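Researcher: Next entry in the queue.
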Amino acid sequence: MKKHLCLFLTMLKIGLFTFGGGYAMIALLENEFVSKKKWIQREEFLDMVAIAESTPGPIAINAATYIGYKVIGVLGSLVATVAVCIPSFVIIYAISLFFDAFLSLTLVAYAFKGIQVCVIWLILSAGLKMLKQMKKTLFHIAILFAVITCMVVLSVLSVSFSTIFYILISGGIGLFMYLLGMLHRKKEADG
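Model: Structure for this entry, 191 residues:
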């Protein structure tokens, strides 16, 4: 029961202090569950981020559900998912009641500008941590540079290209390379 409460409070805290969505939450999740509590190994966390990104739904909820399930089981996934959603729901509901008056406050406008910088840093730091932990194989580096090149070129040319396609294409290439490796290993074993 103590682990349930700890999971609930941790996810509630992360949900409350994460601005900018699920990508900004990745750094906080890693800090809490990999570095501090050591409930998840780094390699598994990287896999969890890939799975949470590639499955339908918001990455924050997918990640919370996975972590909860990994730590406690089915009840843990429910606890973590609800806990990470409660702060956003309450804050958005409160803002919606006073939306027009809220946005017209100069202090709020400046706070949002400051939060934008923080969000960029959280996303960048999560990406850099994952990059440092990534196995540095030729394949991984080639995929990384191909995706970065595509993102920069398409952004400069103002071409709208969903990040989902980057994920699907990279996943497809990874699956193709895996199958190619299996065929190669099978051919060596047979011949």
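Model: The two ends are 56 Å apart (CA to CA).
Researcher: Noted, moving on.
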